[in-house]
Specification:
This protein is 31% helix and 21% strand. The protein is an alpha/beta fold and 470 residues long. The protein has 3 domains: 235 residues, TIM Barrel (Alpha-Beta Barrel); 73 residues, Roll (Luciferase, domain 3), CATH 2.30.38.10; 147 residues, GMP Synthetase, Chain A, domain 3 (2-Layer Sandwich). The strands form 5 sheets. Strands 1-2-3-6-7-8-9 form a 7-stranded parallel beta sheet. It has a 4-stranded antiparallel beta sheet with strand order 10-11-12-13. A 3-stranded mixed beta sheet has the order 16-17-18, with helices on both faces. The longest helix is centred in the middle third of the chain and has 23 residues. It is elongated and about 95 Å long. The N and C termini lie far apart (81 Å). This is NADP-dependent oxidoreductase domain-containing protein. It comes from Rotaria sordida.
């Protein structure tokens, strides 16, 4: 087979232009395309890899618009369009697309899969229209492995594979008419590539998520050597595994609802789950414990509750297993509240807890000794810090400041501290209250301060906040 194309060492992916995980502003997308052009070391053409599936054609549309705005000549770019997904109806605002729910953000259109002789040509024509004057010269059938895997029976699998071969027949006709330069394939399961190259003459293959720094099986290496001997170009996508190049926060990430709480994935909050070759396989010789954290689909449930920030970062806001319920049925996320109260200059550390039979939260507070000694007058400099922590006036001052922070942060009444206990010793590794990552060992703290926490509901907090009167 004669090879008609030469590809550079680096090809630019465009899934981010289709709002993969994050809906970037148009100006940022333009900056991305501009950087790709500028930092290609003068190579021409600059190669972009795209797909109708990327944001239901949004990536194609955005790429074409950006190239047009930059006055890039069509001959100076080489665009690959992985075909098989066709833009359809406009979505209602806030509605998820019917494909890959939770992956693409703020899409305007839905898309359907069309893998057949006629369907692949429709995808090709629509893709060129979306490219706004540019044309895809590298074409392929997108994710044929997933298409076949979606079959419900062996008979349907055979039919779907036949659809793929028919789609490639259409692409070969485009190539014979010089409408495209080269035909390839992109697949997450390399074995599907191995199967198709025996039935179709391919100019290039894209191995997605199979040949990575985490996983590189010998049989795949052998197959790649065979491709090289045939003269087939190999493009290795996701060398560092899915999600790496757009930030580790998206490393095969998804969020799920936290049961019995208000944390819901559709509200941009949920438990963080991750999956991939780099994720640990389980606890050694402890299948029961492994099943507690890794579900049947291979997702590791981290126990962290996360939310997306406006700039596309994943922020950890709580721990799912640390949430507890108060008597009125309200759920408390203690670590979120601690992030508010720790802003007090009087506080070095704080541990918030509660009892299910009570309607408010309380806290163990370790005051900032240096700040206390500088700002709290006792009349003597010889008072031990332990004795200072027993001072009712100091407790009143600190509790007042914590309530001020609660009001400033618009915390609910039940999230406002009703009482505190001042503890003189910092939580540390030595006393067993801090992990190696400097997080509070909540179970240890709860057990140690159990009687004190209970007593905080039985004694007056000395002061009354205006919130408590509401």
């Amino acid at each position: 087979m004669s090879q008609r194309i030469t590809l550079p060492k680096v090809i630019f992916g465009t899934s981010g232009l289709g709002n993969l995980y994050v809906a970037l502003e148009d100006k940022i997308k333009l900056e991305i395309v501009t950087a790709c052009i500028q930092y290609s070391s003068g190579q021409k053409p600059v190669v972009f890899d795209c797909a109708g599936k990327y944001g239901a054609g949004l990536a194609l549309e955005t790429l074409g618009n950006c190239l047009k705005m930059l006055n890039i000549k069509p001959e100076d770019v080489l665009i690959s369009n992985k075909l098989g997904w066709y833009r359809t109806t406009e979505l209602q605002s806030g509605t998820e697309p019917t494909f890959e729910s939770g992956v693409w953000r703020n899409l305007k259109y839905d898309a359907v899969q069309k893998i057949s002789y006629k369907g692949i040509l429709e995808c090709y024509e629509q893709g060129n229209q979306l490219l706004n004057g540019y044309k895809a010269k590298l074409v392929s059938v997108h994710d044929p492995d997933e298409y076949v895997a979606g079959a419900q029976s062996q008979l349907e699998k055979d039919k779907r594979y036949s659809d793929i071969i028919e789609a490639y027949r259409a692409l070969c006709e485009l190539k014979s008419r010089d409408e495209v330069k080269a035909i390839g394939i992109g697949s997450k399961d390399w074995r599907m590539i191995q199967r198709i190259v025996n039935d179709v003459n391919l100019d290039w293959v894209m191995i997605a998520n199979s040949m990575t720094v985490h996983s590189h099986p010998q049989e795949l290496v052998t197959f790649m050597e065979e491709l090289q001997q045939r003269g087939t170009i190999i493009i290795n996508a996701a060398v560092f595994n899915g999600g790496f190049l757009i930030g580790e926060d998206y490393y095969n990430y998804r969020s799920i609802d936290v049961l019995d709480t208000t944390y819901r994935s559709e509200m941009n909050q949920g438990e963080v789950c991750i999956r991939g070759p780099a994720i640990f396989k389980g606890y050694y010789s402890d299948e029961a414990k492994t099943k507690e954290v890794i579900d049947q689909d291979g997702w590791l449930h981290t126990g962290d509750v996360g939310e997306w920030t406006s700039n596309g970062a994943l922020r950890i806001i709580d721990r799912a297993k640390h949430i507890f319920k108060l008597s009125q049925g309200k759920y408390i996320a203690p670590e979120r509240l601690e992030d508010v109260y720790i802003r007090s200059q009087w506080v070095a550390q704080i541990f918030i807890d509660g009892i299910s039979s009570e309607a408010s939260v309380v806290a163990i507070v370790i005051p900032d000794e240096q700040y206390v000694r500088k700002n709290f007058q006792t009349g003597t400099t010889e008072t031990t810090f332990a004795d200072l922590c027993k001072d009712a006036k100091l407790k009143q001052i600190i509790l007042s400041d914590l309530i001020r922070l609660a009001e400033k942060s618009n915390l609910k009444i039940y999230e406002t501290l009703s009482n505190i206990h001042l503890h003189p010793e910092l939580f540390s590794h030595n006393n067993g209250f801090i992990t190696v990552t400097f997080k509070v060992r909540r179970n240890n703290a709860r057990k140690h301060f159990q009687s004190i926490i209970k007593s905080l509901y039985q004694t007056d907090p000395i002061i009354t906040s205006k919130n408590s009167l509401k």
